[in-house]
Amino acid sequence: MDLVVRWSPEAAEDLESILEYIARDSVFYARAVAWKILDISCAIPGQPFIGRVVPEIGDMMVYLDLRVREKNPATADELSEAVREGALMRIRPVLMTVITAFAGLLPIFIFDGLGADVMRRIALPMVGGMITTVFLILVVIPVIYCLWEGRRFERPA
Fold it and tell me: Is the dihedral of CA 134, 138, 141, 147 positive or negative?
């Protein structure tokens, strides 16, 4: 049995209108498809909550800058003292935030049960990210700030 397809002018008009519709909205559809492909929050439950500690880095920069501007250092030693005081002002809130997050993640590491292996895969990057963030906030950011602002006090040779 042979299949015979007859092409009518009405079918051609219908196909043309469908192609016009697709061409008109293709940018929107391409954007929607790309967004769904790149949207990893639907693949990893809890992923949107991972980055809640990281904004502390911005707070650290503001506190360091405010402390340095209050002290108005005239030498590199005064600058490093002002940066140290600014870092000490932020150590308590940063550690309180991280310790609270660790306390919340502790049951995920301790208990076994249904879905515990999946939850551990989520909790482990969160803990690693928080440790990295604390290191950045309390060590790297003050050192970089001190080096950057310390350029003012260098004398040309």
Answer: negative
- The alpha carbons of the chain give a radius of gyration, in whole angstroms, of 28
- Say how far apart CA 107 and CA 129 lie, in whole Å: 18
Q: In the chain, what are the helix, strand and coil shares in percent, each to the nearest 5?
A: 80, 0, 20
Region of 69 (left: φ > 0; alpha: ψ -120 to 50; beta: rest) is alpha
Half-sphere exposure of 88 (CA within 13 A, CB side): 7
Sign, CA torsion 105/107/112/116: negative
What is the widest separation between alpha-carbon atoms in the chain? 96
60 HSE (CA, 13 A, CB side): 28
**Which pTM was predicted?**
0.54
- How confident is the model at residue 76, as a pLDDT? 81
Burial of residue 71 (CB within 10 Å: 0-12, 13-18, 19+) is middle
- Mean pLDDT, each 10-residue run in order, the chain (157 residues): 65 69 60 52 47 57 73 80 80 84 84 80 80 82 83 68
